[in-house]
Design a protein that fits this description.
single chain; globular; 467 residues; binds pyridoxal-5'-phosphate; Aspartate Aminotransferase, domain 2
Length: 467
C-alpha cells in the first residue's frame, strides 16, 4: 500500500470509526448471529491474489460487523462494561504504526520509560506507596500468574532450577475469587489442589478467621503456605475482602499477599473511596486493570509489586544475542515476564490520563457509581425485584421475585434466566448473570462512557415490562 493510498484509506477508516462512536446504539448490542454464521460467510482459503482495500472494508461491514457484540453500546451492562475511549483508540493507531517491540530498553527507550512514568502516575492516583513498581501485561490473569510466580520464587528460589519435587504449596483465596487464580496455580505446576478456597460471610467477603484456621490446618498437614489472594471487587458481586486483616495475617505467617483489584482498584482515586485499597499498601503485589474501568482500550493490565527484584529473579534469562550495554542500568521488559516481545501499551494509558486528567477520570468513575446506586434504589423500592448483594461500586446484583413464585428457588432461577433472555433479545441492553448462594442473579454493570441515566432507566423499564 503506497503512502497516498494509506492516507486515503486511513481517512476513510477514521471517518468510519468517528461515525460508529457517535452512535454505537444504532446496532443491537448483543450480536444476533448463530454459531458458524461468520465462518460460513468466509471462504475456506486465503485469496490467491491481493484484493483492494475497498472490497476488504466492504466485507468488514457486511460480514464481520453483524458478528460483533457492541461493547461500545451504551446499553452494554453485562460482565464488566468497558470503554476504549477515543484518546486510547488514537494511541492504538500510533502504537500500531510504530510497531515497537519493547523487549529491551534499546529496542525503544520511550516504550520502557513511558511505562514506568505512567504507572507511577496511576500508583499515585490510587494512593499506593512509592515502594510499588509497576509493569504492564495484557490481562489480569497474566498479571496474577506473574505475581504468584514471584511468590514462589521468594518462598523457594531453588524451584526455578530443580522444579517442585515433593513440595506441597498452598495458595489461599475466597470462594468468590476469579478463576484466573485457579489457572495460575495449574500453570505454575502447583496443582489445582494447592488452591484452598476460604469461605465468605453474608457480604461475600473472605472470613479472616477461616483463613487463619486453614493455614494452621495446612501447616499441621505438611503443606507450605505460599500466597494469599485477596480481592477488591470480586467478579460476581464486586464484594471486597478485608484486606487490612488479611495483610496482618499474611505478614504474621510470612506469606505473599497478592491483591486482585482488577476491576475496582481504580475507584480508590475517587474522593471518598480512598478506603477501597486500605491495607493493599501492605501487600506484596496488586493488580489493576485500566482496560476494565479506566477507559483504556483492551488490553492493558498493571501489576504492582514491592519486590521487582524477585519478579525479575523469577523470569530473567538473557541469551547472548540479547545482552546489551544497558543491562543493569535501564529496565529491560523481557526480564519481567514470560514473553519476550511486548506491545507498546503504555502509550494508550498515557494518552487516556492526559486527555481526561485526574479530575476527568474521577468524575466519570463517580458518575458510574451514582448510576449503579440509582438503579439499586429502584430495585429496593420495587416489590417485583430484590437486591442480592451490596453495591460498593458500579455493579448491581438483583433478581425478579414474582409473588406466585416466592419460596420456589428453582422456579425463580428459571424465571430470571428467561427474563434476561427476553430483555437481551430487545437489542437495546445486554445483561449477564451470576450465581450467589446458589441463586441465579442478574447483574447490571455500569462502566461505559456513553451510558447515561437514560440508558439505565431504559434497562429498568425493559426488565419491568418483561417480568
Ligand atoms: C476481570 C477480572 C479478572 C480477569 O481479568 P482479565 O484481564 O480478563 O484477565 C481477574 N480478577 C478480577 C477480580 C476481575 O474482575
Amino acid at each position: 500500500m503506497d503512502p497516498e493510498e494509506f492516507r486515503r484509506e486511513a481517512h476513510r477508516v477514521a471517518d468510519w470509526i468517528a461515525d460508529y462512536l457517535s452512535n454505537p446504539g444504532q446496532y443491537p448490542v448483543l450480536s444476533r448471529v448463530s454459531p458458524g454464521d461468520i465462518t460460513r460467510a468466509l471462504p475456506p482459503d486465503a485469496p490467491a491474489h491481493g484484493e483492494s482495500f475497498d472490497r476488504i472494508l466492504s466485507d468488514f461491514q457486511q460480514v464481520i460487523l453483524p458478528g460483533i457484540t457492541h461493547w461500545n453500546h451504551p446499553g452494554f451492562f453485562a460482565y464488566f462494561a468497558i470503554t476504549g475511549s477515543a484518546p486510547g483508540i488514537l494511541a492504538e493507531f500510533l502504537s500500531a504504526a510504530l510497531n515497537v517491540q519493547a523487549m529491551l530498553w534499546r529496542t525503544s527507550p520511550a516504550a520502557t520509560e513511558l511505562e514506568e512514568v505512567t504507572l507511577a502516575w496511576l500508583r499515585r492516583l490510587v494512593h499506593l506507596p512509592d515502594a510499588f513498581e509497576g509493569v504492564i501485561y495484557d490481562t489480569a490473569s497474566i498479571s496474577t500468574l506473574h505475581a504468584l510466580a514471584a511468590a514462589r520464587e521468594r518462598a523457594a528460589p531453588d524451584v526455578r532450577v530443580h522444579g517442585l519435587g515433593a513440595r506441597r504449596f498452598r495458595v489461599y483465596c475466597s470462594d468468590q475469587t476469579h478463576s484466573s487464580i485457579d489457572k495460575a496455580v495449574i500453570l505454575l505446576g502447583l496443582g489445582h489442589e494447592s488452591l484452598r478456597k476460604i469461605p465468605t460471610d453474608a457480604q461475600f467477603s473472605m472470613r479472616p478467621d477461616a483463613l487463619v484456621s486453614a493455614i494452621a490446618d495446612d501447616r499441621a498437614d505438611g503443606w507450605s503456605p505460599l500466597a494469599v489472594v485477596a480481592t477488591v471487587g470480586t467478579t460476581s458481586s464486586t464484594s471486597v475482602d478485608p484486606v487490612e486483616e488479611i495483610a496482618a495475617i499474611s505478614a504474621r505467617e510470612d506469606i505473599w499477599l497478592h491483591v486482585d483489584a482488577a476491576y475496582a482498584g481504580v475507584a480508590a482515586m475517587v474522593p471518598g473511596y480512598e478506603h477501597v485499597l486500605r491495607g493493599a499498601g501492605a501487600a506484596d503485589s496488586i493488580v489493576l486493570n485500566p482496560h476494565k474501568w479506566l477507559f483504556t482500550p483492551f488490553d492493558l493490565s498493571v501489576l504492582y509489586t514491592r519486590h521487582f527484584d524477585v519478579l525479575r529473579a523469577a523470569f530473567s534469562l538473557t541469551p547472548e544475542y540479547l545482552k546489551t550495554a544497558e543491562t543493569g542500568v535501564a529496565r529491560n521488559l523481557m526480564d519481567t515476564g514470560v514473553q519476550l516481545g511486548r506491545r507498546f501499551r503504555a502509550l494508550k494509558l498515557w494518552m487516556v490520563c492526559r486527555h481526561f486528567g485526574a479530575d476527568g477520570l474521577r468524575a466519570r468513575l463517580a458518575e458510574h457509581m451514582r448510576l449503579a446506586r440509582l438503579f439499586a434504589d429502584w430495585v429496593d423500592q420495587s416489590s417485583g425485584f430484590e437486591r442480592m448483594a451490596p453495591v460498593p461500586f458500579s455493579v448491581v446484583c438483583f433478581r425478579a421475585i414474582p409473588p406466585d413464585l416466592l419460596g420456589n428457588e428453582t422456579a425463580l432461577d428459571a424465571f430470571n434466566e428467561e427474563l434476561i433472555d427476553k430483555v437481551n433479545r430487545s437489542g437495546e441492553v445486554f445483561l449477564s448473570h451470576t450465581r450467589l448462594d446458589g441463586r441465579y442473579v442478574i447483574r447490571l454493570a455500569v462502566g461505559n462512557l456513553h451510558t447515561t441515566e437514560v440508558h439505565v432507566a431504559r434497562a429498568w423499564a425493559l426488565l419491568n415490562s418483561a417480568s
